[in-house]
Amino acid sequence: MHVIVQGKHMDVTPALRDYAETKVGKIARYFDQIQDAQVVLSVERRGGLGKAQVVEITVRGDGVVLRGEDASSDMYAKYRSKMILKRRIEESRRKARLLSSAEAALRAGPPGGGIVRTKRFAMKPMTPEDAVLQMELLGHDFFVFRNASTMEVNVVYRRNDGGYGVIEPEP
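Request: output the structure for the sequence above.
Response:
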């Protein structure tokens, strides 16, 4: 697994880089299809933490993207985001088996605020079921994808009743 460690508005010391690579390398035990991982270390102002040391971990492999984030007062504190990723990997395995059943639906979270960021990304064709799985792995309430059967851009989303919906353009 290739691990990239970056600092955002901070310098990453060799010791911190080694620590991050070691901790993230342990994720491979839980998910053997991992191709690469990106760790972004930053210092941000966070509510009750004041200046928080933030660790963002993104893992890619076999068409799946997993992301975890954690903030604490110490960059060397436990990489709890590693545990978040482990939990998401375990959830993805379970949901892959239960995706067609209603038991796989998660409760909807509270609605968020206004637009704070714009993202551009490549869309590979996938089925709505794969898009739901990807949405859950990312921990989002919706996911934009290119439908493999129609080649049109669709959106899957988590409904308030715990189910999922698909938004398709009219012909």
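Confidence is low (pLDDT under 50) at residues 99-110.
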